[in-house]
User: Which sequence fits this backbone?
C-alpha cells in the first residue's frame, strides 16, 4: 500500500479557553494508480488533512504509513521533498517566468540541478504536448492551461504521491474536463497515487476511483456505490 492514514486528529489551541478540534479519526488508504477524492464542504477539514499527511501540520494522534512504514512528521517532511508533491491551485507557478523556466525553478526548489531540471521539464512538456507553450510567460496562458502546467510540473521530482488541493477551482467546464483527462493519465501512466480535495460533486464523480467524505473533521466512507445522495445528506447535516 502506498499510503495509509490511521485515525489522525488535530486540535488547534487558538486560545486556552476555546481549543478548536479540526480533525478527528480521519482514516483512508491509497495505492499506486489510484485517485482518491476527499470530498467536503468549505471548512470541513480537507486542507488540514492533506497538510497533516505531509507533515506540514503536526497531528495530535494517529499515524501515517508510507509504503507500510510508520513515519513521523519529520520523516514525512523528507518524503514531501523526495517522493511527494503538493499542488495548491496553481500557486506553485511564477507568473512572470516562461513555462519552461517555471519547470527549472520548481526543480531547483526540489534540489534538482539546473541542467537536469531543464532536461526533465523539456521531456514533460513534450510528453503532454505543451512544447509550443514552453517560452510563453505563465500570465499569458489561460487559467486551464496554467492549471495543466502546474499539474505537469509536479512530475519533475518523479513523485510517487501527488496531492492536489481544489485543482479545478475557478475553471470553466472545458478546462475542468482537460484537467480530469490529464490527472487520469498521470495516475495510470506514471503509476502514482493521487489525492484530490474538492467540494465539487460532479468533478468527484468523474474522476475518483474512491471517495472519502470529510465532514466536521471526520472521515466517512461511503456505504454504497451511488454515494451522491449519501454525501448530500451528510453535508446538509454538517451545515445545520
Assistant:
Amino acid at each position: 500500500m502506498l499510503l495509509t492514514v490511521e485515525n489522525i486528529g488535530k486540535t488547534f489551541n487558538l486560545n486556552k479557553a476555546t481549543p478548536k478540534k479540526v480533525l478527528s479519526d480521519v482514516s483512508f488508504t491509497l495505492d499506486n494508480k489510484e485517485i482518491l477524492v476527499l470530498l467536503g464542504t468549505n471548512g470541513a477539514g480537507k486542507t488540514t488533512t492533506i497538510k497533516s499527511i505531509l507533515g506540514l501540520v503536526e497531528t495530535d494522534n494517529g499515524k501515517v504509513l508510507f509504503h507500510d512504514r510508520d513515519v513521523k512528521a519529520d520523516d514525512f517532511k523528507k518524503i514531501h521533498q523526495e517522493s511527494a508533491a503538493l499542488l495548491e491551485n496553481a500557486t506553485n507557478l511564477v507568473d512572470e517566468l516562461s513555462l519552461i523556466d517555471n519547470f527549472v525553478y520548481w526543480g531547483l526548489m526540489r534540489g534538482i540541478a539546473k541542467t537536469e531540471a531543464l532536461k526533465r521539464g523539456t521531456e514533460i512538456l513534450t510528453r503532454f504536448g505543451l512544447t509550443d507553450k514552453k517560452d510563453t510567460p505563465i500570465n499569458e496562458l489561460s487559467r486551464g492551461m496554467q492549471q495543466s502546467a502546474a499539474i505537469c510540473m509536479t512530475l519533475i521530482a518523479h513523485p510517487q504521491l501527488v496531492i492536489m488541493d481544489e485543482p479545478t477551482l475557478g475553471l470553466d467546464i472545458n478546462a475542468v474536463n482537460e484537467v480530469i483527462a490529464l490527472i487520469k493519465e498521470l495516475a495510470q501512466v506514471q503509476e502514482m497515487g493521487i489525492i484530490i480535495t474538492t467540494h465539487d460533486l460532479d468533478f468527484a464523480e468523474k474522476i475518483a476511483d474512491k471517495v472519502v467524505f470529510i465532514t466536521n473533521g471526520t472521515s466517512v466512507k461511503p456505504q454504497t456505490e451511488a454515494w451522491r445522495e449519501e454525501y448530500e445528506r451528510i453535508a446538509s447535516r454538517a451545515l445545520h
